[in-house]
Each structure stands twice: as structure tokens, then as C-alpha cells.
Design brief:
Length: 308
DNA sequence: CTCGATCCCTGGACGC
DNA sequence: TGCGTCCAGGGATCGA
């Protein structure tokens, strides 16, 4: 599933593969994941690709002004914003090559290739944005974990009451981290996913900041994690899944202490952690069941047991 | 502000 | 072999 390292990998690949190419035409398949399909069809043809970069989990494909400026109102630089969701892929391929199943967007380039967007589950998102609308959209997101200072990282988390796992996943706090790298960094920093942001010490957050950066950089170097079907712009899988220490390892031994890795739901997501290395905060018991009433009832039960 | 629930979507795993 | 069921997960949205 594409998170920061996977998106960075795709961005770097596309940057070298399609920068400078001009978009000749657009063909669309299913469009329910596109903000404004008509805008894509209208605005893209005639524009050149200036740059491809990562913005959080988005690919930001910067486009030139249209080559032919007959429409003055649209005569500005814009960008194609692409979120790969869970199963999205952006593949530049020769027109002659048969398109994969679930190819929903094809941008014909001026060198005989197509930039194809393939996404079985269509959890991705695509939009053409320009000017103030683009700027406003980008401003919704938090700090880039590889660019943020320690001070910024700490203040963004420490002033929040939510659980650290939820904060790491919240794109408005930190942009680009998803379930895999949240769990891996929390394990390495020895922090339980249910810890509250405001209760973490400077020392704990310093450790988390450094481990998160270290893990993201290593994962980028290995072209990301391919769990099910992630492929980079060259159609190749990543290698970082071999280095996962907790993600997807429920019941297996912690490589640090030998305890069995557990899985709980935190922030609505599967969260893998080592119960020995990552101590739960007070109050985080056998919860996460069904209702608060049920939790309260079991709490009462324990109390009366102890009272005896 | 923070939470959980729900929806979106399809393929893969699993049970029978 | 072929069903049916469950699950994965990012993000938007809604109600508590």
C-alpha cells in the first residue's frame, strides 16, 4: 500500500521517465475516483510535464501552461494530483503494449507512450488543480516528516490529546505516514500506539522523530514495501517488506525481545506491536470490543473481584 | 476535539 | 470447483 516511501519511489521513477513529455490526449475509463473528469479531459491535452514530486501520499505532477493559448481563462500552470489509494499504479508504457486490467486513465504522451493509471479498487484519487485552489488543497496537509524540524514534529504531536497512532496517520498533522510505517516506527521507538500525544515526553518524541526518519529513508532506499501489489514506475516491487519488524507479524516473535507480536485496533486500524517492548498507557486495557457499556461492565467485574 | 461507525471497492484467503 | 463470507485499508463524512 503506497505510503510515503512508495510514493517517493514512484515520483522519482516518473520524474526521470516522463518529465518534459507533452500530453497529447486523454482517455478515461471509470471516473468515480476523479474529482472532475471533465476538467482532466479539457485541461491536460497540450500541456507538458514540468516535474513529478511527492506531496504526502500524493503525486504532484506539475504541468505547463497550455501550448496553444486559445483559452485565456485556463492559461495558467496547474498540477495533476494523484493519490494511489491502496492499489493504484502509474505506469508509462508504449501504446502498443496491452493495458492491464483496471486501467482507468491513459494520458497519451508525445513520444508514443501512455501514462496509465491502474487501480483495481479505485481507492485512489485524481484531480487537476491550479492556482489558489491547488495552493489551498496543499495547505490542508501537515508537515513532511523528512523535512520537519524536531521542534515542529514535537509541537504538532504534543499539543494533541489523540493517540499517537491516530496522529501519525492524520495527514493534517504529518503527511505521508500510513499504517505500515506508523507501526514500524512506534515499535522501534518503543511507544505503544495508544499513547496519547500530549503525554509523550520530549525524549520519547525525539526518539520517534529519529526512528521515523530512519525507517522512511531506509524504505525509500529499498524502493518501498510491496505487500500485495505495489509496483514502482518501472513495474518493479519494493524490498522493504523484508525489514518489517511488527507489521503483519501477529503471533510471531519480537526480534528484539522474543515476545509474541499482538494486533489491536487503534484509530480504527490494525495496529501491530510488541506487548513487552511497547507498554500500554494506563487505562488501555482489554478494550476495543463492542460498546463502552460492555467495557464498563467488565471493569466493574474486575473491581468487584479485586474487592473480594 | 476526539471517537467510532459507515461507506467506497475488489481480490485474495479461507471454510465448506 | 465453486460458492459465500470476511478482511484489507485511506479518507470522507456523520453523529455521539
Amino acid at each position: 500500500m503506497p505510503e510515503l516511501p512508495e510514493v517517493e519511489t514512484v515520483a522519482r521513477g516518473l520524474q526521470s521517465l516522463i518529465t518534459g513529455r507533452r500530453i497529447v490526449s486523454v482517455s478515461l475509463g471509470k471516473t468515480d475516483f476523479i474529482d472532475d473528469p471533465a476538467a482532466i479531459e479539457k485541461e491536460l491535452p497540450g500541456r507538458s510535464i514540468l516535474e513529478v514530486k511527492r506531496y504526502g501520499k500524493f503525486l504532484l505532477i506539475r504541468l505547463s501552461r497550455p501550448a496553444t493559448g486559445e483559452d485565456a481563462s485556463a492559461d495558467e500552470e496547474g498540477a495533476l494530483l494523484v493519490h494511489l489509494g491502496m492499489t493504484g499504479m502509474l505506469l508509462p508504457q508504449p501504446v502498443a503494449e496491452p493495458a492491464k486490467k483496471h486501467t482507468h486513465v491513459a494520458l497519451l504522451l508525445d513520444d508514443g507512450r501512455e501514462l496509465r493509471y491502474v487501480d483495481a479498487r479505485r481507492f485512489g484519487r485524481m484531480a487537476y488543480l491550479a492556482g489558489d485552489v491547488l495552493q489551498k488543497e496543499l495547505q490542508r496537509f501537515g508537515a513532511d516528516p523528512l523535512a520537519a524540524s524536531l521542534q515542529e514534529f514535537v509541537s504538532r504531536i504534543q499539543k494533541r490529546r489523540a493517540r499517537i497512532k491516530a496522529l501519525l496517520l492524520d495527514q493534517g498533522v504529518i503527511r505521508g505516514v500510513g499504517n505500515i510505517y506508523a507501526d514500524e516506527s512506534l515499535w522501534k521507538a518503543k511507544l505503544h500506539p495508544a499513547q496519547l500525544g500530549e503525554r509523550l515526553t520530549n525524549e520519547q518524541l525525539g526518539k520517534l522523530y529519529r526512528t521515523l526518519q530512519e525507517i522512511l529513508r531506509k524504505a525509500i532506499a529499498l524502493h518501498g514495501s510491496s505487500i500485495s501489489d505495489f509496483l514502482d514506475a518501472d513495474g518493479l516491487p519494493g524490498e522493504y517488506q523484508r525489514h518489517h519488524r511488527v507489521y503483519g507479524r501477529e503471533g510471531k516473535r519480537c526480534v528484539r525481545c522474543g515476545s509474541k507480536i499482538r494486533r489491536v485496533i487503534v484509530a480504527g486500524r490494525s495496529s501491530y506491536y510488541c506487548p513487552n517492548c511497547q507498554k500500554a498507557p494506563r487505562g488501555f486495557g482489554m478494550m476495543g470490543k463492542k460498546t463502552k457499556a460492555r467495557a464498563a461492565a467488565s471493569k466493574k467485574n474486575e473491581k468487584s473481584k479485586k474487592g473480594k
